[in-house]
Amino acid sequence: TMLHSTLALSLLLIAVTSNLAMAIKKEKRAPQTLSRGWGDEITWVQTYEEGLYQAKKSNKPLMVIHHLEDCQYCQALKKAFAENEEIQEMAQNNFIMLNLMHETTDKNLSPDGQYVPRIMFVDPSLTVRADITGRYSNRLYTYEPQDMMFLIENMKKALRLIQTEL
């Protein structure tokens, strides 16, 4: 039985160490690269073209977030966006989601300039919704961390407009 208990102990040790290794691995796991911190539960498309294709195919609006890594306003907005459960859930279930760190060639996505952060919606009919704007007249498509309720309203508006117009 000495052998038996040694075996049992080493099996236990193996179990503990592999669980520990799993826990360490989990901690270290880099967030899914396409999310870039905007929400790891969300399925993100990789390119604008893919976003348009998925929006048309699924009949969901496309939400495009333009941002840059070294922009403090983008970082602040990203944090508020990622921490807002209602936004995360809607983004996950009702939208095709894209976040870009470069400009697209589609000029319709920069109707009032190429600033960051900016969030725009594209209808499944592939129309850029220039009518869904934020609160600031000098940068129509920008949102600040305190504007999350406003962004939620705009997301709902983007969903509502599909149902009524198509």
UniProtKB/TrEMBL annotation:
Gene3D superfamilies: Glutaredoxin. Residues 1-23 form the signal peptide. Keywords: Signal. Coiled coil: none annotated. The keyword Transmembrane helix does not apply. It comes from the Eukaryota. One of its GO terms (molecular function) is dystroglycan binding. The keyword Signal applies. GO terms for cellular component: endoplasmic reticulum. Belongs to the AGR family. This is AGR3 protein. It comes from Falcunculus frontatus (Eastern shriketit). The gene is Agr3.
